[in-house]
Structure formats: structure tokens, C-alpha cells
Recover the amino acids of this structure.
């Protein structure tokens, strides 16, 4: 791929192998998590361990068969950019314009080339010839333009906030089009690896009408068959898929993929042990430990990783009393991170988190770690007293009355214990805490909000447990996370500032690592001081499977480059097979 792209140093996964919505979140609730992308390895050989724990020689492939996958939760739509989907399902139905390789670089996938003009204000994409959607309609420049026009619609799109600088998609030829930007964006191709880069059939969507999101038609390796909500998503092999493997064997290898939501972590692991399903994943630290033990006993295979994602809580800074920085700082000072990590079973597996980037990342800052509020209940009480005795306190209570807050989290046993631990910490400094148990899909809906709110997408919660961050370019991660509230559903905290806007501008326009690092550090320092986010620990993830499932992470990009494994426990399913 030609054009100006930021140069980045590379770091490695911390565990045995590499491990689903860009921006402030990767998936949902607190204490654990995912991302998409993968700015992670040190060398290609070291990154290769993310492929699989079993041999993956392409010459030994067994074609056909079915793999059943256990999901953490169901989605509310499969229309890209229309709501909360599931990335593992999306990766099977939709291919992306670009993907991230094991080398950390962006590689063309559905695209044959991606090129920038001199100022990175125009990015021209040439699609591969002959690719069709599952309904037989062509994947061409006009189809992508119509898709993108939907993404730009702030009334319906959940990704509009991350592409406000895109003025138009200009069709230059049957297979060539250009993203015309209002200002430079050195990291723009990173967006094309995710939702914004998932082409879908406009004709099929128009025919389905209101059911478009439940009858997805993409250009990926598997075609949609049926969706029984909260029960089963069934996909079948796309016989007209555009790719073959290195030996000329038509992809995908499998005949069928079935996804089943299994919210209970223990049940998901037990289902793989029994062979009822073949693949599962977990972002819960205690269960990551359990999969390690089961692999050591020879019962399953487990691919683990620790990227830039972390768990914790998000404060809705538009809602009193957490609209006041003193209250937010107090709640963070009152919380012992190590205890939260231990509650989640991550002691010895995951370190405390203080920013969007782990110590393995080239964007990590030791100065930010030092600035993040340390466990200090006495300081927490001082800050709370200052707020409580302020005649103009934002919650409208009388001077001297205690602070009352609401903390939402799913009813998963480990997260319930996490909530109770947080409640105990905050009760200990005099805060009244109401715990709200909501199922994960509801939690996400509450956090993202809706377009008909005032302001739009401001959410319906006070404090929520969540997973934050992603293994992507910092601009791709941070721009939607702190974009304008009214257009950025991914700005769950509803926090913005002039400084953040200024530093995002640097990330958007500069390809120089040192300049970009300084911008990231400035943003992270402000977040450590203003604490719209409360971090617990980093998130180790485990993708676990029966031993007959091969090549979970050994996929390749459309240009032949080695892919980045199973970052965020997300699989590229075209090259997975099941040994029989």
C-alpha cells in the first residue's frame, strides 16, 4: 500500500498467543477485554505464535464440516454501522477493505491498492476485480459509495462520529473510488479494517427493508442462513468466495459456521470441553486462568493475549454528581485496583491499567502511570467533603448531604462480585451506592444512547462498567472515543476538551512518531487528571477450542501477507478447518 503512514515500533504479546467497536470500547462491560487491530509484536516469528497451538500446515487441510462457536452475547443487528454487532460473526459475513498484518501494517484485502495523495487528504482505493456479494451483485466503487453515504448519516449511523472529516466518497471508475477528506488523516486506512470497511449489498438491504440488519449480505466467506435471537446464528459456505489458499484450494474450508450466545462463562467453557461447541472465548480473568489449566491437562487448546485493552468504569460526565471532577477523582482514589484485579481472577495475569495503552505498547507513558490517581481513601474523603460542602454542588442536594451514585454492570457472577467490591470501597468513604444489574446488550444500549436524546448519544446511565481501548492506531481508537457528543456514540463518557481536540488534530495530520507520541501522552495525562474513565486492570483474553479445530489465527491478507492472528479473540474464519 502506498501513501504516508505512521511508523511504529513493535512490541510482543505477553502470553502464549495473540488473542470485538472501535473507540472507547471494544465490546462491553468492565474488567476484561478485546480490541480489533493489532499494533503488537516484536518480529513476525514471535507474532506467529498467535496462529494456533496445533500444527497448521496448509497441505494437511481437511475441507468441509461444521464449527460451532460460543459467543459472550448476541448482537442487536448485523448491519454495519447501525448498532451493536458481534465482530466474530461480522468477520464471517463481511470481508473488509483492509486488514492489519502481523507486521503491524495495514494491508489491502478486498482492495487491490490503497494510495494517498501527498497531503493525505485523499485516499484512493482500487477494489479487486470480480468480487460479488452473496446475492450476486457486484462489489464495485458505486456499492462502497452508497454504503459510506449511510455511514455518514448522523440520524442512523453509530460510526458517523469517527468519519466527520470525510466530505465524500468520489467514484473514479468501476472499481476505483476516493475518500475525500476535509483535512489530512495519516491513519485513515486503519478505519478500513473495521466496520467502516465492511461493504454490504445495498440491493439486498433495500429489499429487506427493516429486516436488513437481521439478514446481512456481505462479500465474506460465509453466507447468512438464519438468526434465532439469543439462540443461534447459522451461516453456510459462500461457494463464490473470491479467495483461494496458497495451494489453490477454494476458501473457505468449512461448510458451515454456527454461533450460539452462551453468556455464562462456565457454561461456554464446559460446552467446549464436552464438544457441544468447538470454539469459545473469554475476557474474564478467572476464566482465562481456567482455560490455561485445562490446556495444561490436554483437554482444550487456548490462545491467550494481552493487548491495549483494559476494564474498569466510565463516568457519564453529563450526569451529576459525576459531572464534577472532584467526585470522579474521589471515587478513583477510593478504589484499590489490585483488589479489583484479584476479584476478577487476574492476579498474576493482568497488570493494573492507567491509560489506553499497556506497557507493551509503543504509545505507553510511564509519566501517565505516575499521574493516575493512586489508592488514597484519605484524599478521596477530602475531595468528597469539598464537593459536599459546596453550596453550588451539581447534584442539587443540600450542603452536607452524602453523594449518591448509580453503578451499572451485568449480572455475571464475577462482575457482580466486582460491583460489590466497588460498592464497598465507595461506601467506605461515605458514598451511597446503588447497584444496577443489566444484561450486557442493555448495558451497551444504555452507554451508547440514541440519536433522539438531547444531546444525541449521551447515554442513559451514571457510571457503567466497561471495556476500553483497542489495538489500533491511536487516532482510530481515540478520535471516536472523545469526539463531539452529539455525533459520537462511541464517546460513552461524553467527555471532550480543547486540548483533546488539538492533540487529535496532531494524530490526524502527522506521520512523525515522536510528534504523535507527544500528542498521545498529552491526552492520556489529561484523562489521568480529569478521570472520565476509571481503570481496573488490563485484559488478558483467551480464545479456546477443541483440539480438532485448526488454524484459528493463521490467516492471510488478500495481498498474501500474514495476518495479525486472533487479536481481541476475533477470528478470520475463511482459513479455519476442522480435522476429522
Amino acid at each position: 500500500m502506498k501513501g504516508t503512514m505512521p511508523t511504529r515500533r513493535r512490541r510482543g504479546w505477553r502470553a502464549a498467543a495473540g488473542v470485538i467497536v472501535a473507540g472507547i470500547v471494544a465490546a462491553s462491560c468492565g474488567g476484561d477485554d478485546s480490541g480489533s487491530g493489532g499494533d503488537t509484536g516484536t518480529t513476525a516469528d514471535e507474532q506467529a505464535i498467535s496462529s494456533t497451538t496445533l500444527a497448521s500446515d496448509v497441505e494437511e487441510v481437511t475441507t468441509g464440516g461444521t464449527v460451532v462457536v460460543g459467543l459472550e452475547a448476541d448482537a442487536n443487528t448485523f448491519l454495519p454501522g447501525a448498532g451493536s454487532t458481534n465482530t466474530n460473526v461480522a468477520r464471517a459475513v463481511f470481508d473488509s477493505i483492509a486488514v492489519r498484518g502481523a507486521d503491524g501494517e495495514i494491508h489491502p484485502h478486498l482492495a487491490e491498492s490503497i494510495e494517498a495523495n501527498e497531503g493525505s487528504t485523499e485516499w484512493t482505493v482500487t477494489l479487486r476485480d470480480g468480487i460479488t456479494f452473496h446475492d450476486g451483485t457486484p462489489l464495485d466503487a458505486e456499492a462502497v459509495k452508497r454504503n459510506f453515504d449511510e455511514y455518514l448519516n448522523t440520524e442512523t449511523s453509530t460510526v458517523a462520529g469517527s468519519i466527520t472529516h470525510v466530505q465524500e466518497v468520489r467514484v473514479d471508475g468501476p472499481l476505483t473510488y476516493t475518500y475525500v477528506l476535509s483535512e489530512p488523516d495519516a491513519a485513515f486506512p486503519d478505519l478500513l479494517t473495521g466496520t467502516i470497511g465492511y461493504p454490504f449489498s445495498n440491493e439486498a438491504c433495500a429489499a429487506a427493508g427493516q429486516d436488513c440488519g437481521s439478514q446481512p449480505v456481505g462479500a465474506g466467506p460465509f453466507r447468512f442462513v438464519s438468526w434465532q435471537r439469543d439462540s443461534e446464528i447459522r451461516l453456510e459456505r459462500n461457494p463464490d468466495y473470491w479467495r483461494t489458499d496458497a495451494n489453490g484450494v477454494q476458501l473457505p474450508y468449512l461448510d458451515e459456521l454456527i454461533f450460539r450466545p452462551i453468556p455464562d462463562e462456565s457454561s461456554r467453557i464446559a460446552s467446549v470441553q464436552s464438544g457441544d461447541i468447538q470454539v469459545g472465548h473469554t475476557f474474564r480473568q478467572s476464566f482465562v486462568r481456567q482455560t490455561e489449566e485445562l490446556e495444561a491437562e490436554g483437554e482444550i487448546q487456548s490462545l491467550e493475549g494481552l493487548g491495549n485493552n483494559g476494564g474498569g468504569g466510565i463516568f457519564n460526565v453529563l450526569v451529576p454528581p459525576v459531572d464534577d471532577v472532584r467526585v470522579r477523582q474521589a471515587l478513583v482514589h477510593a478504589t484499590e485496583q489490585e483488589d479489583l484485579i484479584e476479584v476478577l481472577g487476574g492476579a498474576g495475569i493482568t497488570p493494573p491499567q492507567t491509560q489506553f495503552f499497556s506497557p507493551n505498547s509503543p504509545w505507553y507513558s510511564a509519566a501517565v502511570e505516575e499521574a493516575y490517581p493512586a489508592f488514597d481513601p484519605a484524599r478521596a474523603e477530602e475531595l468528597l467533603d469539598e464537593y459536599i460542602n459546596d453550596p453550588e454542588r451539581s447534584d442539587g442536594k443540600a450542603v452536607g448531604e452524602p453523594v449518591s451514585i448509580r453503578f451499572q454492570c451485568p449480572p455475571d457472577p464475577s462482575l457482580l462480585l466486582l460491583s460489590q467490591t466497588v460498592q464497598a470501597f465507595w461506601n467506605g468513604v461515605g458514598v451511597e451506592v446503588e447497584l444496577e444489574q443489566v444484561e450486557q446488550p442493555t448495558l451497551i444500549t444504555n452507554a451508547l444512547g440514541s440519536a433522539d436524546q438531547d444531546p444525541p448519544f449521551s447515554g442513559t446511565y451514571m457510571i457503567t462498567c466497561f471495556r476500553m481501548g483497542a489495538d489500533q492506531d491511536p487516532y482510530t481508537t481515540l478520535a471516536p472515543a472523545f469526539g463531539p457528543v452529539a455525533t459520537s456514540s462511541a464517546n460513552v463518557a461524553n467527555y471532550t476538551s480543547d486540548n483533546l481536540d488539538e492533540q487529535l488534530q496532531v494524530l490526524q495530520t502527522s506521520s512523525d512518531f515522536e510528534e504523535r507520541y507527544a500528542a498521545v501522552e498529552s491526552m492520556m495525562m489529561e484523562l489521568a487528571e480529569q478521570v472520565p474513565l476509571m481503570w481496573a486492570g488490563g485484559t488478558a483474553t483467551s480464545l479456546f477450542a477443541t483440539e480438532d479445530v485448526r488454524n484459528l489465527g493463521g490467516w492471510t491478507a488478500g495481498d498474501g501477507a500474514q495476518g495479525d492472528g486472533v487479536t481481541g479473540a476475533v477470528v478470520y474464519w475463511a482459513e479455519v478447518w476442522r480435522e476429522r
User: Anything to note?
Assistant: Residues 513-530 form the longest helix (18 residues).
